[in-house]
Amino acid sequence: MTSWYSFNINGNLYKNTIDAFTVTNLYPVPSTYYGKSQEMVSGSAKWNSTLQFDKTLKGQVSIIYLAPDIIPQGKVGSRFSVDLGLKKTVQKGKGEVFLNATDIFNTLVLQKKHKRTRF
Fold this sequence. Notes:
By secondary structure, this protein is mostly beta strands. The protein has strands spanning 5-18, 21-25, 31-35, 38-54, 57-66, 69-71, 74-76, 79-90, 95-101, 112-114. It has a 5-stranded antiparallel β-sheet, with no helix packed on it. A 3-stranded antiparallel β-sheet has the order 6-7-10, with no helix packed on it. It has a two-stranded antiparallel sheet with strand order 2-3. A hairpin with a 4-residue loop joins β8 and β9.
């Protein structure tokens, strides 16, 4: 884009399939769970930005989006994360100091919808 800003975008798209299954839990009392066949198209996207503030200071911002998905225990909702990083070159280029912050808005919380167990 410019001499001080660049970015790249990456995306993934996939089809997730979970076959029907039966599980018997013996403890504390025998109970049987039947999971039906499930199928879903899901994916993720990432935007990674790099900022060059001066010759010795560089910043990075990453935004990650994860689409809703299925797991054997139920469904996982969509979620996203914003990560930040700074790198300062020191000692005339012989060393570096890093500062990183992950999920700065605390939005990467996993939210699931559990299936009900059938006896």
